[in-house]
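Weekly modeling sync, notes
Attendees: S.R. (lead), two postdocs, one rotation student

Agenda item 3: backlog of single-chain predictions. S.R. asked that every request posted to the team notebook include the full sequence so nobody has to chase files. The rotation student volunteered to paste the first one in as an example of the format we agreed on. Action items at the bottom.

Example entry:
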Amino acid sequence: MALAGTDALMRWRYRLLPDHLLGEILAKRWIDNLIPFAFLLITIGIFGSVIPDFYSIGYLSDATRQLGEFLLIVIGLLIVMLGGGIDLSVGSTFALANLVALIAMNILGWPVWAAFLAVVAVNGLVGLMNGVLVGYLRLRAFLTTLVTLIMIRAVVDMLLLKFSVQIAGAYVESDLWFYLGDGTALGVPFSFIVAIVIAVIAHIFLSRSRLGWHVSAIGGSRRSAYNIGIPVRRTVCMTYVLSAVLAGVAGFLFAARLGGAGADTGVGLDIQALTAAVLGGNSLGGGRGSVVKGILGSIIVLLVSNGLVRLGFQSGATSMVLGLILLMAVSIDVRWLKNRHKVLSKLYVSPTYFRLPTRPSTLPDSGSPYALNDKLRQVEVIGLGQIEGPEDVILDRDDNLYCGSRHGDIVKFHGPDHKRAEIFAHIGGHPLGMAFDREGHLQVCVGGMGLYAVSPKGEVRKMTDETNRSPRSIIDDARVRFADDLDIAPDGRIFFSEASIRYESQDWAVDGVECRPNGRVICHDPRTGTTRTVLRNIRLANGICMASDGQSLLLNETWACRVLRYWFDGPKAGRTEIVLDGLPGYPDNVNRASDGNYWLAIVGMRTPILDLALRKPGFRRRMARRIPMDEWLYPNINTGCIVKFNEKGEVLDALWDLGGQNHPMITSMREHRGHLYIGGIYNNRIGKYRIPGADPTWTAQDHYWGSAR
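Predicted structure, as returned to the notebook:
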């Protein structure tokens, strides 16, 4: 088992999927959308009660027509914001598009399609200018687009002085032009239909396409995005081009609807669009947002603007109200970003009651089978300083030693002296449990990635990273997030534990604070390629080892401090029994011994205060709410031991390193040719302990699969 793991290099999207209380879904979706939904309901309620005919068909038709144009601008600004930028020039580019469309249609007499292409081309050039300045030359987006706003507004004013009279006196004979401005389809304004179609495309682009993920990644961390090979400058430039083009489409539809231009066209539209984007819940800091949130914000801003006008307020009052709303939305956004983790912890961390059996004594003179000793003090050390985090260790028939590394490698120490090391395979995630199959392939559980196979030549192949969804689960728990340890049945089926379906491997300690049965056992059959969950509701499902009957397996339930036996075949199929209960610490991996018994690694010792806290879920809940995570009460994993036991649950021996000087924390052990090889996920070495009286010819692989190659 891994009590820690490597973080993913880049998380494109949040994927925490709890199995109760809606967990992270409640915390992320409900809290993120609570404020805009509350604003929307309050706005509708207030204006609906004071404005006559607020819900009339005529008013709704006019509002949706305006919403279609405004929504296009907000979507374009949202894309820029998601990439970590800002575009204050959308109002000016909207006015420029409106004017270019009117010149093309009213003065030049171009067809509609040509006028539309002219608008897209002109606005695309404006967006390209912003994109080059901000993306490639790395100028500050706020100042750059502010200057662009001023420059484009000056161009619009000069063109108005020259062409306003001609535009006003011209008449366009085009049914298509009039339909674009005032036409409907099934009673829905055409501009609103266009906006909805573009909104759907934008949603798919941002949430399902590689380029959309690149935009979110850049907004989340531009430096990290650059380091993993994303074309940051080109992508940022593209966002500004899209923003300007969408503003151009909105201006084109506006021109078709009103057929005129004025000096105030687009004035204040940038503030309105920014207010809509932020009020909807999209982050000013980038990396977090969605089209749906932009739609919510657009509806709110449009209702407020039109409502104030219908109530008789002057335009200055409308701008002031929108400015106050924007200030409030920005304040909430900043505070939410600062306190988001704390708020999520309050809702997401949900401790439960659990009572552990009485902790057995470990005092040297107590007569306890767990009594402290110094048997591991003088073990031989292998690979000191050459490896980091050898959570599990295993040996092949040629006495070569393999272990995982927190750098995402499987390291091979050549036998028989294990002095020469090399990287046998690079997987990318932290290798946790390992087992050789009949053909000599190394099956590996990789934290955050699933089950993988490594051939004798070091070739890596994914076996599975998903299982069947729980039939009564309200969320999709099919993804394997915390594959832990494994063993292989005589018929080739691979049984592996997933420590928690609720937390990633790096959050193992939070799972311990909850102490909920979030773990499970999964079976993958290489013959059919199928994967299914066979056992659920385990408190941190951990080490797995096939029992001697070939029809059951031993499973460590870490937070419950016990070892279970689960029958997957035979007359007892489906039954679970407790083999070893009331351990003095938290069990990790379990493996076979040469005399028919089993070795068990205990990764850390129980403490009276945490045992008591497990019976106080309210205390742990208040702890998660009120103090920082680094000050929480966590399980102790600073010291451990190795226990030998039989299938009756009798403890036969205990091996300690008194004081924890040589092996302070133990997560795994393998017996091989009379020695016990010891791994630890926080260690930088592998231990080698000579077992008194053990068979010097016994190897786990030959014993299980037979010596024939």
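Discussion: group reviewed the output briefly. The first strand starts at residue 184 and ends at 185.
Action items: rotation student to repeat for the remaining queue; S.R. to check formatting next week.
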